[in-house]
Amino acid sequence: MDDEPPPNQMMNKQPVEFDQAINYVNKIKTRFASDERVYKAFLEILNMYRKGQKTITNVYDEVAVLFRAHADLLTEFTYFLPDNSPPQVPQSSAAAAAAAG
């Protein structure tokens, strides 16, 4: 019994419901109906992650570029990430990106 976390710790992160994920994907498909390349690129990014060809940081970075003009979609996407927040960027990478931008 000592191996199980207390119930309040088990409830910290609620699992993402399948219906929520489907609704989100449908929202993307609808939003980009006039440019299906964005929708297809999103699906391909997720597929490559599923196959182990991308890290979650790669996925977030690429989705952020796809949704750069759609902050609501990017914010909602973070809900589906493993810890419900964008991956942390190391300070040196953030400084380099700021200097390059």
Question: Can you walk through the features of this model?
Answer:
The chain has 101 residues and is mainly alpha-helical. Helices cover 61% and strands 0% of the residues. It has six helices and no strands. It starts with 6 loop residues before the first helix and ends with a helix.
Q: Terminal Cα separation, in Å?
A: 53 Å
* Backbone shape: globular
Count of helical segments? Answer: 6
Order of helix and strand elements from N to C terminus: HHHHHH
Radius of gyration in whole Å, from Cα? 16 Å
How would you sum up the major sheet?
none
Q: Based on DSSP secondary structure assignment, what is the total number of beta strands?
A: 0
Give the integer mean of the pLDDT values.
Answer: 80
How would you briefly describe this protein structure?
The protein is mainly α and 101 residues long.
What structural keywords apply?
globular, single chain
Per-chain topology:
Elements: H1 7-10, H2 18-31, H3 36-50, H4 56-66, H5 71-78, H6 91-100
Helix pairs in contact: 3-4
